[in-house]
Fold:
Amino acid sequence: MLPYKIATLLYIFNERDEVLLLERAQEPNCGLWSPCGGKLKTELGESPYVCACREACEEAAFALTPADLHLTGLISEHGYQGNAHWLIFLFEVKPKLAVLPPPIHEGRFDFVAREKLPDLKIPETDREQIWPLFWKHRGGFFAAHCHCREDGRNEWTLEQSFLSPASGNLTTRNLQHEK
Structure:
């Protein structure tokens, strides 16, 4: 039986709308680029919003309050890398970050333009669906589930999709997508 882990990812942008990414120096995803974030302190009853604020401060020296966050997505991953099930809250940070944070024990940071993401080494689930879903739903909300198969296939279900009213394409729907 695999453990269930709960985490946050923070989509932090600068004034040029480049996203802050961490080249991870440890597992999970060692050597890959991803947004900063971390696991909830479930033993303390920490909420996803409090976790996101704590992680922003610890990793990027960026002081936030829950009001600074927009919950853009919720991802559940069944059997990721055969190690655990994950429930991941994806937050877009509303304030812009002016300065690149210094390296930390978990890795080094860089601001990355959206069009440069395909050139980076990123986790496969991020490449397949998480980044495309984030960009499509920025300002809105989505919920998706990934069943990570032992043979390496990932089966995705888009469980809810609410596009931002600013996009001009306001929808709520449930979809099934298999990769």
